[in-house]
Amino acid sequence: MTVSLSLSGITAHYGTTKVLEDLDLHVGEGELVSLLGSSGCGKTTTLRLVAGFLEPTTGSIKLGDRDLTRLPAHARNIGLVFQTYALFPHLTVRDNVAFGLKQRGIGGAERRKRADTMIDRVGLGDFADRYPANLSGGQRQRVALARALVIEPPLLMFDEPLSNLDAKLRVDMRVEIRRLQQANGTTAVYVTHDQEEAFSISDRVAIMNAGRIMQLDTPEVLYSRPANAFVADFVGFENMIPLRAVAEAGDAVRAEMPGGGVLTLPKEHFTVPSKEFILATRPEGLLVAPAGDGIPTTLGLRTYLGRAYQYQCDTPGGEIKANGPLAQPFESGTNAVLIPQPEQCCLLPA
Amino acid sequence: MRRLSGFNVVSLTLGFTFLYLPMVILVIYSFNESKLVTVWAGFSTKWYGELMRNEAFLDAALVTLKVAVMTSTLATILGTCAAYVLVRIHRFPGRTLFAGMTYAPLVMPDVILGLSLLLLFIGIGLDRGVLTIVLAHTTFAMCYVSVVVTSRLVAFDESLEEAALDLGATQWETFRLITLPIIAPAVISGWLLSFTLSLDDLVIASFTAGPSSTTLPMKIFSAVRLGVSPEINALSTIMIALVTVGVITASLMSKSAAIRKAKDEKAAARA
């Protein structure tokens, strides 16, 4: 039973503060979509709306062809994994996992069998009779996962499920979550503020800011082709060089930096979106060369990164970071040019 | 830890003497052979025997117990409800006013509370008796329950309730299966507290009692006006014992919960 989740035109308020603004989100059947953003961006609010702990001011939420918008939380049949795990402290691991089954009227023997099977699947077979207080963080996380999965919900949701674990366990658990989600083919929404975590396990990622989705795309596209300056900055495009298109010269566009300096961008590789635009790139997207068609610069401090040297470059448009090859180190104070590498640079509307 | 200095020992002794000397004297004289309260004539438990044969005291004790059990049960239910709503529902019109008003009877003089309840009962034509005492005691006892339960609910992780809702439990099932078992220690403490409060109340009971419903504190008070008898000492000793047992039980319960928690955390750290 795989279904899709659709949020359309969702606006939500906390008191008088607007926290979500006209949000549309579609999660396809069996797809894992992450909501990624810093705290206060509305990602957790979105999840709580779908779970039914909050009601939207306007808009509708549909799971398959079921309208969830005004349905009480207990009737929604969604598996939710909480950041704090939210295990019932007065119940054993087995009773925690069986809680949802009991609420669904599944009888004693069948309930126990299904709970135990799920506890085995998350590798806690020996801990079924323990209380949550007697488990480590990673084990509690597994119980929370088992409790959400055992009810075989059409939709799974995760609210920063790994933020209380140490780094190594986080990596193991996210792989585990992805494996279980794919094995069941369950549609899933995953909320996190950790970019690596979101990119590593998601089919698509929605980068959110101030109650809106800034871009919803596959991790690959987000990483290399951000659609706007916010997303570019979020995924680590450290250089944002403002430019203005001044002239067309055959098969190239000539663009000017505010403080002087002219750059020729071949039309074959670059599509200029507007007259004023931004060249966004990571340090490795600018090649440091002694001469050529690029941004003129005086090289400043050089740092060693292992795979390359990084230079703090003084340019007419301000300070820029660029990486240079290990084979050819430049001395500080050298005049050079920074040549934008088309496949690693984005031109964004200003 | 710092050592006990002479100064500390003296202040400790003074403090405890001040607190407990009157009670210790009362208890000792309840075992006095003599009829005279101020003259020691040897150890005896005969006043306890006398007490057991005193119908008036036994009736009063029965009334008091009845009132205390009914009061604490009713106050626990109402106080828990009030605490739950005040903690869980963050926004409703007049929330602050309600919260303040719940606590008001805590600081209201007993005389005022008793008088206002008496006027109310007369006004609505309710015959005074056990029922009116129970209603009056519940009025102030539920505030104490509400305070105790509130402090537990504030520390309660709300996502536990959300998890239960998410797994298909209705609001009522969530309260019954998740919230109530977890806050049970506070609810039981509230019950014990109400019980002792009701047990030793004199003022409010005097206002709201009827002719057939004299409570033990009322009985003792009126008996003492005719002179203190060792029987009263015996009775008071029993009451002190009851309250002490109640308080120790309540504190042992919370202490063993704390010990269990510490042990669990140690076990989890090893796991």
Question: Could you give a short description of this structure?
Answer:
The complex is a heterodimer of chains A (350) and B (271). Chain A is an alpha+beta fold and 350 residues long. Chain A has helices spanning 43-51, 93-103, 108-121, 137-149, 167-184, 195-201, 219-224, 229-234; strands spanning 5-14, 17-27, 32-36, 58-63, 66-67, 78-81, 155-159, 187-192, 204-209, 212-217, 239-249, 252-256, 262-266, 276-281, 286-289, 295-304, 309-315, 318-324, 335-340, 345-349.
Secondary structure topology:
The complex is a heterodimer of chains A (350) and B (271).
Chain A: E1 5-14, E2 17-27, E3 32-36, H1 43-51, E4 58-63, E5 66-67, E6 78-81, H2 93-103, H3 108-121, H4 137-149, E7 155-159, H5 167-184, E8 187-192, H6 195-201, E9 204-209, E10 212-217, H7 219-224, H8 229-234, E11 239-249, E12 252-256, E13 262-266, E14 276-281, E15 286-289, E16 295-304, E17 309-315, E18 318-324, E19 335-340, E20 345-349
Parallel strand pairs in A: 3-8, 3-9, 6-7, 7-8
Antiparallel strand pairs in A: 1-2, 1-4, 4-5, 9-10, 11-12, 11-14, 12-13, 14-20, 15-19, 16-17, 16-19, 17-18
Helix pairs in contact in A: 2-3, 2-4, 3-4
Chain B: H1 6-30, H2 46-53, H3 55-88, H4 95-107, H5 110-123, H6 130-154, H7 158-166, H8 171-199, H9 203-208, H10 216-224, H11 230-270
Total of DSSP H or I helical runs spanning 4+ residues of chain B: 11
Query: What is the molecular shape of chain B?
Result: globular
Overall pLDDT confidence of chain B: 85
Secondary-structure element series of chain B: HHHHHHHHHHH
The biggest beta sheet of chain A reads: 6 strands, mixed
By CATH's scheme, which homologous superfamily of the largest domain in chain A applies? P-loop containing nucleotide triphosphate hydrolases
- Quaternary state of the chains: heterodimer
CATH architecture of the domain at 55-230 in chain B: Orthogonal Bundle
Structural Rg of chain A: 25 Å
Low-confidence stretches of chain B: none
CATH overall fold name of the domain at 55-230 in chain B: MetI-like fold
Broad shape of chain A: elongated
